[in-house]
Amino acid sequence: MSFLTIDHVSHTYFTKKSATTALEDIHLEVEEGEFISFLGPSGCGKTTLLSIIAGIMKPTEGQVILNGMQISSATPSVGYMLQQDYLFPWKTIEENILIGLKLLNKLNENEKKRTFQLLHQMGLENVEKLYPNQLSGGMRQRAALVRTLSTDPKMLLLDEPFSALDYQTKLKLEDLVFQTLKDFKKTAILVTHDIGEAIAMSDRIVLLSKRPGKIAKIFTVPKELRDTSPFKTRQHPTYTSLFDLIWKELDQLETNNNN
């Protein structure tokens, strides 16, 4: 049995006057420790799918199975990291990164120490008593990642977490997140519009068609790229050929949907 099974998931948004199908028959199996990216045109339902996997939204059809259990509501087993860091501005960094443990009634000295160690591993030392507005955007996103990992979720969902950052900070954070997830052996799913980011971070890339979102194609990233840090991946000869291939597939999907 796969670690994560997205079992023939479809979703339709209903209003009094219309019905809009966002996703249609999405079926995918993900192994433990795998890094998957969802890539596709705007409006293809990527964020809807992520919300369904997180248990925030119930699909119209199908189900999501994580480690043998159906996900029917939000669960601590799934961590969710968004484009905005959503740190509470009136709380210190220490209070922010410990809030998940506190809500789950798991906050003790051992967990606090482990979380602080993770904060330091992220290059954030002596910031515990600072407030979010005293940190840069990249530092806030690192703090948000610590908060997400503090509760030790089985899987991490990343919804364009680097898109609001400047390019240099984005590249540094890609490397940091990539290595952190490898070290913790976490399964991760990334939603992105960035082909390069998907190639640099993923084991597999799932290409979705325009609304209604369907799986159009799945690319397996070559081993020589999977074993390389995101920054170095972009300089690898294989990177360019895969980028061009995915670009053409995306362009074809756009063309087909506009006809």
TrEMBL record:
Family matches, as SUPFAM superfamilies: P-loop containing nucleoside triphosphate hydrolases
CDD domains cross-referenced by the UniProt entry: ABC_NrtD_SsuB_transporters
Keyword Methyltransferase: no
InterPro entries per UniProt: AAA+_ATPase (IPR003593), ABC_transporter-like_ATP-bd (IPR003439), ABC_transporter-like_CS (IPR017871), ABC_transporter_ATP-bind (IPR050166), P-loop_NTPase (IPR027417)
Keywords: ATP-binding, Nucleotide-binding, Transport
An annotated Gene Ontology molecular function: ATP hydrolysis activity
Stored Pfam families: ABC_tran (PF00005)
ABC transporter domain ranges (all copies): 4-235
Identification of the protein by name: Spermidine/putrescine ABC transporter ATP-binding protein
